[in-house]
UniProtKB/TrEMBL annotation, chains A, B:
Domain Ribosomal RNA small subunit methyltransferase E methyltransferase: 75-227
Domain Ribosomal RNA small subunit methyltransferase E PUA-like: 18-59
Descriptive protein name: Ribosomal RNA small subunit methyltransferase E
Reaction equations catalysed: uridine(1498) in 16S rRNA + S-adenosyl-L-methionine = N(3)-methyluridine(1498) in 16S rRNA + S-adenosyl-L-homocysteine + H(+)
Main subcellular location: cytoplasm
Cell compartment(s), UniProt: Cytoplasm
Free-text function comment from the UniProt entry: Specifically methylates the N3 position of the uracil ring of uridine 1498 (m3U1498) in 16S rRNA. Acts on the fully assembled 30S ribosomal subunit.
Keyword ATP-binding assigned: no
Enzyme class, UniProt record, top EC level: transferase
A GO biological-process term: methylation
Molecular functions (GO terms): methyltransferase activity
The entry's keywords: Cytoplasm, Methyltransferase, rRNA processing, S-adenosyl-L-methionine, Transferase
């Protein structure tokens, strides 16, 4: 399967022109020819089958032969807000793995103990794009610009809100709390965890404290564990 | 907490001498002094507390003050046999994450479609050691030398045997099949999956075919998903 990510395609289009970069890749690297079948995903749930009409190395023309909208639409919406890791590769790894397993939205939070206060969303988003192509997903998870935790905590969210932390106190489990086929926002703290004040503010804003098990997990592992639990519990 | 991995310590020892390398790390890097408290793990379930008796930079002497055997002993035994990934970093990530989440034994399998036929177990084992220190685990997961799939399939195993594959055919789920608090061996194939013949041989040898969900997962993600599922299902 030769899959291209074409976010500007519309389901009504009878033809599509690959960009210069994708055309070069299709014709010069993959050596596709006129008549070859390819697949397109638009990142909004559209999955297209197309045939190469003109194998031009700079402006390949495709005839769309079929369109499926809402391809493998997910039953729930998962938004994970995670503090970027000091070593950015750990965050990149999380984005790749979460995309494979299933995620809808990621926010990067800047909290009091964050060691990294910024992250290049464009660059990180390319990792997500590569992962949806690899795992054949028609929906492109949204990666939001870094946001201060205090701002995120006070924003309205239509769904269940959770915060995973390691400070003492009563913790719930997603297994018991999750309302299936719903919308979830889960916060994962930085290497030094959230501060007691941040946790208190989150609880006041309706976030439920959760545990992700007895193991001491790194930030990116905790985020992936949350992603795994939500998808596993929602799997029929 | 200053944690050292000391596989040669015994629960009856009243004192312990750190190796030259660990002594240098303790005294020159961590700047620990006589009287400082440290922790030791032996990789076999022993968790020790000790006080520095002589802060010698080449031969630090510790007085053992308490010993806990079977520290955080797991309720089940998970052995994952996975084909080493073409890009070895992906296997390294799996080993680190599986150690954090919980695993007991890893085998590296060489199958017909394996792109990588060898792996340096010594080097990979150091990643596991770093991960048990980071996540404070007293048991060191065992990493076995690479083994041919055909050999592993015919070996006796006292527990449940599963094979995750993407070929057509009936698939079971761990959620329905797993006998809790038991022993498990789970096989994860290479980038190109197991061959139909390998799958057939596995089924004949009592391995049950399982699915890890609808997503197309990379080898290391599939192995980690299996690890997640087994630990999550066994969590009380």
């Amino acid at each position: 399967m030769q899959l291209f990510y074409t976010p500007d395609i519309e389901p009504t289009h009878p033809q599509y022109f690959l960009s210069e970069e994708e055309s070069k890749h299709a014709i010069r690297v993959l050596r596709l020819e006129t008549g070859s079948e390819v697949q397109l995903i638009d990142g909004k749930g559209g999955f297209y089958t197309a045939v190469i009409h003109d194998a031009h190395p700079k402006r390949t023309i495709l005839n769309i032969t079929s369109v499926t909208e809402g391809f493998n639409k997910r039953s729930h919406h998962l938004h994970i807000a995670v503090a970027p890791t000091k070593n950015i590769e750990r965050l990149e790894w999380f984005l790749e793995k979460a995309t494979e397993i299933g995620i809808d939205e990621v926010s990067l939070i800047i909290s009091q103990r964050s060691e990294r206060k910024e992250a290049k969303v464009d660059r990180l988003s390319k990792i997500i794009t590569a992962a949806i192509k690899q795992s054949i997903k028609a929906y492109h998870p949204v990666l939001n610009e870094p946001v201060k935790l205090s701002e995120l905590l006070s924003r309205p969210f239509d769904g269940q809100k959770f915060m995973a932390h390691c400070e003492p106190g009563k913790k719930l489990s997603l297994r018991n709390e999750l309302i299936l086929q719903s919308r979830y926002l889960i916060l994962i703290g930085p290497e030094g965890d959230f501060t007691p004040t941040e946790i208190e503010t989150a609880l006041q804003n309706g976030f439920k404290p959760i545990t992700l098990g007895e193991s001491r997990l790194r930030t990116e592992t905790a985020a992936l564990e949350a992603c795994f639990e939500v998808n596993f519990l929602n799997r029929i």
